[in-house]
Specification:
The complex is a heterotrimer.
Chain A: E1 2-3, H1 6-27, H2 29-40, H3 42-60, E2 64-70, E3 77-85, H4 86-90, H5 92-96, E4 114-117, E5 123-126, H6 143-176, H7 180-186, H8 189-208, H9 224-260, H10 262-277, H11 280-297, H12 305-324, H13 326-341, H14 343-350, H15 355-391, H16 403-414, H17 422-449, H18 451-454
Antiparallel strand pairs in A: 1-2, 2-3, 4-5
Helix pairs in contact in A: 1-9, 2-3, 2-7, 2-17, 3-8, 3-9, 3-17, 6-8, 9-10, 9-12, 9-13, 9-15, 9-17, 10-13, 11-12, 13-15, 14-15, 15-16, 15-17, 16-17
Chain B: H1 2-29, H2 33-41, H3 48-58, H4 74-77, H5 80-85, H6 102-137, H7 142-155, H8 159-173, H9 188-219, H10 222-229, H11 234-257, H12 266-272, H13 277-286, H14 290-318
Helix pairs in contact in B: 1-14, 2-3, 6-9, 7-9, 8-9, 9-11, 10-11, 11-14, 12-13, 13-14
Chain C: E1 3-14, E2 19-30, E3 34-38, H1 45-52, E4 60-69, E5 72-73, H2 79-88, E6 90-93, H3 97-100, H4 107-112, H5 120-133, H6 139-142, H7 152-164, E7 170-174, H8 182-199, E8 202-207, H9 210-216, E9 219-224, E10 227-233, H10 234-239, H11 244-251, E11 269-281, E12 293-305, E13 309-314, H12 320-328, E14 335-340, E15 343-344, H13 350-357, E16 360-363, H14 377-388, H15 394-407, H16 424-436, E17 442-446, H17 454-471, E18 474-479, H18 482-488, E19 491-496, E20 499-505, H19 506-512, H20 516-524
Parallel strand pairs in C: 3-8, 3-9, 6-7, 7-8, 13-18, 13-19, 16-17, 17-18
Antiparallel strand pairs in C: 1-2, 1-4, 4-5, 9-10, 11-12, 11-14, 14-15, 19-20
The chains are: A mainly alpha, B mainly alpha, C alpha/beta.
Chain lengths: ~450, ~325, ~525
């Protein structure tokens, strides 16, 4: 049975609006030209692909369902209380198996010695073998050979898939539509190369994780790679949902303040200066603390822990959004004030157009570039903020998979002897990749949409 | 000048009132004091008496705005709003939920915070400006191109990794500095070195990239061409003209955060066990001591507004185009 | 005379596109002569100048040629020696004095950099003398000021002082007077001539204005699309230009005198402005209740007869644009009345205003900012039509659009395009189409040609006269260019500081003005000397 968590619905809305925006762009030549600058740029296309790959994972992880559990008679059934996502069914090799405790990457045994019963009488202290992976090699007994062969096979598979994709999708769009702009976008070897590398990296990881814990296991024996992948959804949601929450405030208030001016401007300015004066961490902390009290005292009707954790994630995004709209609002106010004096707006005034239609027809389309730059720019900052907030215990629910929670746990692991480094490493790697490519992408987007800034990079 | 400062301070009052009302709403209206008390006492099986005594001990047992049982002015003064919110304007922070004098704590803890934040800021500023000038000198070459990418990469690493990594590498593996802790007096230096270094390194990515773009924005302006046409050397152009103009936004950007340095850095302090205001705030958040959080919100706002006023004043000092109105 | 500078086969390209933007430039400058480099925007005249002083953007590359200064190829000099040349021999003045001075350094510090000797006492004396020689009488006061405290003309004088400080042998002046008012322009030109004679230097003068060039220069070089198309002695050039493009350039400075129509039978006024005042409140202080006003327009009365053209002439800050804005309802009227077709526009209800609005429309100065870059041309032209004639059906609309595009000399396929696909002249035609489609009785033209190249300017002016001949529309023509206005208008008002100093029939004012200011304006306008 498909179930919809609150954040799922919002995430669908985000994906939908993304598609609508893409359609709008394709139908608007001048914006398409701006975007085609982004996609002709090597950094731009690479980061766009990496980001959309992450988005895809987050999307798969946002289709939730409950499994049927059949009773003994094999006919009647009940729904499991556990909520799984489509991603879980894909990641079954990582999802299903758990060990007892820590084990290092590619290892065949636990990280700490235990007393093992060899036979009824003899006990010895040794590293216990892992239950599911690490010593169930498919091809060779020798780990190194086995890993190498798995790698080769995975690469071969991804090569075949890439050729398939190339023939089916790329060629067809090229021939079908005689849109020079679109074909120019895709007529790019670099694009194909980056798709290929992403496919091969993920296939290698996937194939390896049938036989090994590629990034080890954590304290309760859960695959760290699985945790890191599941954290993608949290990161992406915080980066996107927050912006979606704040956009209406920022855009409408900013435009009204700037375009209409007068008392409206004074009031809106007062509101955002006041909010802006409070150091943002403290404002977020206070709001979340109060939310915690509220949730503790008003146990809303949650079916299970998943929905509760999801609710908290949703509220976190709301609060981050409500406290972060001021910057964009100020930018838009300034730009609308400038636009008010621009001659094409003056020309429309001489036609007697109402304020509202001037805003819709002339102001909105000409501030969109600022909105886009800000949305892309904020994304990485929000992903980074999640980690810090989780560290202070005001982030996502401790049961939610997130890089922040992983780092938080890693703090203790790093002071263990010998050190357990792979959780921190995994969180670092995934977060770094997402944030790095988001940053690179935002650089290219800013160059494309803000010609003044672009000169610096030529 | 004085006229202007007075005016600016007057402008700040409505903002402080707004912040005050906002925090009051957040802390006392969204959740009633009873609910807060219940949370602290452990939710389940809390008797009404326990809640009442908990509230009485901390002064949360009064009505929010108007006390019917008192007469005259007292009916307004014996309320939560007056005692917990209005008194903040007199910097009377009251007592924390765990019974400590907040004002005393703040006075004690702001100096260690400053001891980390001030050197971090200035060393960082020096290093970032140097790197940015280096980029600008090699602009449109590969040095600049890859330098900027490196900066983006540095920016993409969460501050937590810098701290955990730095602590592990320098303190745990190389034993160069103590892992955490603090002592007063000159002994403090050995505890401060690592946090300062880490804060500086963390800031390099975004800082030098930002300054670089400020320099580049100036370097494209027409007056730079005039300066070159006078036959000035590249370094004279860079330092006498570009640097002077770009310094204005840099300087005012620094001035605005100067007062906030007292608040310290939340994470650095808590990781390194520095008894500053940052770790104070974090501890308060983690133990849900709302009295401290409330005070810190107010203090932070006041310091920020002071920063804004100082920024405006510093603008008039460094930029001849700006005159006080 | 000996050769000072010789440019030989100079070619230059933009690195990213490998497109040649200067092709085989050849010319000489001899000692103490003024050479004018003339061309429209994009002709490569500024790039030529920047190549000589070697201050090109890094995105450009010189691919071929030599620039010989005193028989030395300065393109081969190392940067250090080139710097010495900039310091002592060749200096340059730029177009925008506001942006060419460092905003945070005072005049003294900036001028000091132009001198080599670092003896502070002498330098101060020398700087003051220098400033006095460029016509700044209170130099003692000016040296401690910052650029923003000076007027545009003063700034350009400071720039000139800076450039001549080293007593250069060659001065490159890149459109030094373009951003200045005519009266100031004349002063600056006179100053340059005087300095040239006094200091015996050569000047490479870059301009788009043939009249200015004719007054100042010994030799003329015409450039187009990165090539030199004509080189000639000034007198010969203006008497007998050889190249067709040069001819068309020269042509476009002459406007056909408006044929004197028979005194129109209509005696009704399309526009009747009575005692118009527009005051702007200065940002009032927080403490003092006293309000200060800027009198942008102060007691202005103007009448325009049906089918005629009235021009408002004035320098920047004279309030001429504010009058236009007040008529269009874009600026709030403080007092006075504006009647259009005998209807007082301030008394109309909002419904009546909408009905009335199609009768008076405006064409803006800058065609690059007057068309919304995010809208197709069709939507831009339709905007007013849809709003002011909501009952119009699609067929009529299509017909009107086609018709109006034909009238402004464009074709139907423009409708689906975006503004950035058109040149400045075409954009101005679109802007004219947008208002023309409403069939207005009064058109307010706010400097409609001042941001266009001269040849395009003429086309737009011709289009406007053509439209008037056909549809009997009245124009309120706002311009800073008294020469242009004198050839196209029937009546003129001269404005200064918000007041009309003189108004009347164009012929009378141009030929027999009594007003001092108008005389000054007229005498400042550069005329082509034949």
């Amino acid at each position: 049975m498909v179930t919809f968590l609150l954040t799922d619905i919002f995430f669908y809305i985000i994906i939908l609006s993304l598609f609508l925006y893409i359609r709008y762009v394709i139908n608007t030549p001048d914006i398409l030209e701006t975007w085609s600058y982004v996609f002709k740029n090597k950094t731009g296309i690479l980061s766009a692909i990496v980001l959309s790959f992450f988005m895809m994972i987050a999307f798969l992880d946002s289709i939730h369902f409950k499994e049927k559990i059949y009773n003994n008679d094999k006919k009647s059934y009940v729904y499991s209380s556990e909520i799984k996502s489509l991603l879980d069914t894909i990641l079954i090799p990582m999802y299903e198996n758990t060990e007892k405790s820590y084990s290092s990457p590619f290892s065949g045994h636990l990280y700490t010695k235990e007393t093992i019963k060899v036979s009824d009488k003899i006990e010895e202290r040794d590293y216990p073998k892992l239950l599911h992976k690490g010593n169930h090699n498919k091809y060779f007994e020798n780990n190194l050979y086995n890993i190498f062969l798995t790698l080769i096979i995975a690469l071969a598979k991804s090569f075949l898939i890439s050729i398939f994709i190339y023939l089916i999708i790329f060629r067809r769009t090229l021939f079908k539509k005689d849109n020079r702009m679109i074909s120019a976008l895709f007529d790019n070897k670099f694009l194909f190369l980056s798709v290929f590398s992403i496919i091969s990296i993920s296939l290698v990881l996937y194939d390896l994780s049938f036989q090994y814990y590629v990034l080890g296991t954590d304290k309760v024996g859960v695959d760290v790679l699985y945790k890191s992948i599941k954290s993608i959804r949290t990161g992406i949601l915080i980066g996107t949902l927050t912006t979606i929450v704040m956009l209406p405030f920022a855009v409408f208030l900013g435009i009204f303040a700037g375009y209409i001016g007068g008392i409206v401007d004074d009031i809106i300015q007062y509101i955002y200066t006041t909010l802006n004066s409070i150091p943002s961490v403290l404002l977020i902390a206070s709001a979340i603390l109060m939310l915690q009290v509220f949730m503790a005292n008003n146990p809303l009707e949650f079916e299970n822990i998943y929905e509760r954790a999801d609710m908290r994630l949703f509220f976190l995004c709301m609060i981050l959004g409500l406290t972060s709209w001021t910057g964009l609002c100020r930018l838009l106010r300034g730009e609308s004030m400038k636009l008010r004096e621009v001659e094409y707006v003056q020309a429309s005034k001489t036609f007697g157009l109402s304020k509202f239609s001037i805003i819709v027809r002339h102001v909105m389309p000409n501030i969109m570039h600022i909105v886009i730059i800000t949305v892309v720019l904020d994304f990485s900052a929000l992903v980074l903020a999640e980690a810090v907030l989780s560290y202070v215990n005001i982030g996502v629910d401790p049961t939610t998979y997130s890089w922040g929670n992983m780092i938080n746990a890693a703090r203790l692991e790093m002071s263990r002897e010998p050190v357990v480094w792979w959780s921190l490493f995994a969180a670092f790697l995934f977060m770094f990749i997402l944030v790095l490519f988001a940053n690179l992408f935002s650089d290219v987007v800013r160059d494309a949409f803000d010609p003044r800034a672009s000169k610096h990079y030529e | 000048m004085i006229n202007y400062i007075v005016k600016r301070i007057l402008y700040a009052i409505p903002i402080l009132i707004g912040v005050n009302l906002l925090t009051f709403t957040l802390f006392f209206v969204v959740n009633s004091p009873d609910e807060v008390a219940r949370l602290h006492l452990g939710n389940k099986r809390v008797t009404q008496e326990q809640i009442i005594t908990w509230n009485q001990e901390r002064g949360y047992d009064k009505p929010l705005f108007y006390n019917k049982s008192e007469k005259g002015l007292e009916s307004f003064r014996k309320t939560i709003f007056y005692e917990k919110s209005l008194k903040l304007f007199l910097f009377d922070f009251g007592v924390s939920d765990s019974g400590r004098d907040i004002k005393y704590d703040i006075k004690q803890r702001m100096w260690p915070s400053l001891a980390i934040a001030l050197p971090s800021l200035f060393v960082g500023l020096l290093i970032n400006i140097t790197i940015a000038l280096f980029f600008v000198f090699f602009r449109t070459t590969k040095v600049d191109y890859y330098g900027v990418i490196l900066c983006v990469a540095l920016m993409s690493i969460s501050s937590l990794f810098y701290i955990i990594g730095g602590q592990y590498l320098i303190s745990k593996l190389m034993h160069l500095t103590p892992i955490s802790g603090y002592e007063h007096g000159y002994e403090a230096i050995k505890f401060l070195i690592l946090p300062v270094i880490i804060s500086v390194i963390y800031g390099i990515g975004s800082g030098s990239r930002w300054y670089r773009s400020l320099f580049l924005e100036e370097i494209e302006k027409d007056y730079v061409k005039t300066a070159r046409s006078k036959g000035l050397s590249e370094s004279a152009v860079l330092f006498n003209h570009v640097f002077k103009n770009a310094l204005i936004p840099i300087l005012t950007g620094v001035v605005v955060i100067l007062p906030l340095l007292f608040m310290g850095s939340l994470i650095v302090e808590s990781f390194f066990g520095i008894p500053g205001l940052g770790s104070y705030t974090i501890d308060a958040i983690q133990s849900q001591d709302f009295a401290i959080v409330r005070s810190m919100v107010f203090l932070g706002t006041v310091l920020y507004i002071i920063g804004l006023i100082l920024t405006d004043i510093s603008y008039t000092l460094v930029d001849p185009r700006v005159r006080l109105k | 005379m000996s050769k000072l500078l010789n440019v030989k086969n100079l070619s230059l390209e933009i690195k990213s596109s490998n497109k040649n933007i200067l092709k085989n430039i050849n010319f000489d400058i001899y000692k103490s002569e003024i050479v004018s480099l003339i061309g429209e925007s994009g002709s490569g005249k500024s790039l030529t100048a920047l190549s000589i002083i070697r201050l090109l953007e890094k995105s450009c590359r010189i691919t071929d040629g030599e620039i010989n200064y005193l028989n030395k190829n300065i393109l081969l000099l190392e940067e250090k020696k080139m710097r010495a040349i900039r310091k002592n021999e060749i200096s340059m003045i730029f177009q925008e004095p506001m942006r060419s001075l460092n905003p945070v350094m005072n005049i003294y510090d900036q001028l000091k950099e132009s001198y080599t000797v670092k003896n502070t006492k002498n330098i101060k004396k020398e700087i003051i003398n220098n400033l006095v020689s460029v016509g700044i009488s209170d130099a003692e006061r000016v040296i401690s000021l910052y650029p923003h405290q000076l007027s545009g003309g003063m700034k350009q004088r400071v720039m000139i002082a800076m450039a001549i400080a080293c007593k250069p042998k060659l001065l490159i002046a890149d459109e030094p007077t373009t951003s200045l008012d005519v009266t100031i322009q004349k002063q600056v030109l006179d100053l340059l001539l005087e300095l040239k004679n006094k200091m015996n230097m050569s000047i490479l003068f870059i301009t788009h204005d043939l009249a200015v060039a004719s007054q100042i220069s010994d030799k003329i070089i015409v450039m187009r699309d990165g090539e030199i198309i004509e080189k000639a002695n000034t007198t010969n050039f203006f008497k007998n230009p050889k190249n067709t493009y040069s001819k068309s350039l020269l042509d476009s400075t002459h406007y056909l005198k408006k044929e004197n129509k028979k005194e129109t039978n209509h005696n009704d006024n399309t526009l009747d402005i009575k005692n118009l005042r527009v005051y702007f409140e200065e940002s009032k202080s927080f403490f003092s209740k006293q309000k200060k006003f800027i009198k942008a327009v102060d007691d202005v009365s103007i009448k325009i007869k049906t089918g005629s053209t009235h021009a408002i002439v004035g320098e920047s800050g004279s309030g001429k644009t504010t009058v236009a804005k007040a008529v269009m309802g874009l600026a709030k009227i403080t007092s006075g009345s504006i009647k259009i077709q005998n209807k007082d526009i301030s008394n109309l209800s909002s419904r009546e205003t909408i009905n009335h609005r199609k009768n008076y429309q405006m064409i803006f100065q800058d065609p690059f900012s007057s068309l919304n870059p995010r809208m197709r041309i069709g939507a831009i032209i339709k905007e007013g039509l849809c709003f002011l004639n909501p009952e119009i059906n699609k067929k009529e609309m299509d017909f009107l659009l086609e018709d109006v595009l034909y009238k402004v000399g464009m074709t139907n396929d423009a409708l689906k395009k975006y503004p950035h696909e058109f040149s400045g002249g075409q954009r101005q035609r679109i802007a004219i189409a947008r208002v023309l489609v409403l069939n207005p009785k009064l058109l307010i033209c706010d400097e409609p040609t001042s941001s266009l190249d001269v040849t395009v300017q003429k086309q737009v002016i011709n289009l406007l006269t053509e439209i008037q001949r056909r549809s009997n529309v009245s124009y309120l023509f706002i311009s800073h260019d008294i020469k242009l206005v004198s050839s196209i208008s029937d009546t003129i008002s001269v404005m200064k500081n918000g007041k009309v100093v003189e108004s009347g029939k164009t012929f009378d004012i141009i030929n027999h003005t009594k007003n001092e200011y108008t005389k000054k304006l007229l005498s400042s306008v550069p005329q082509i000397i034949n």
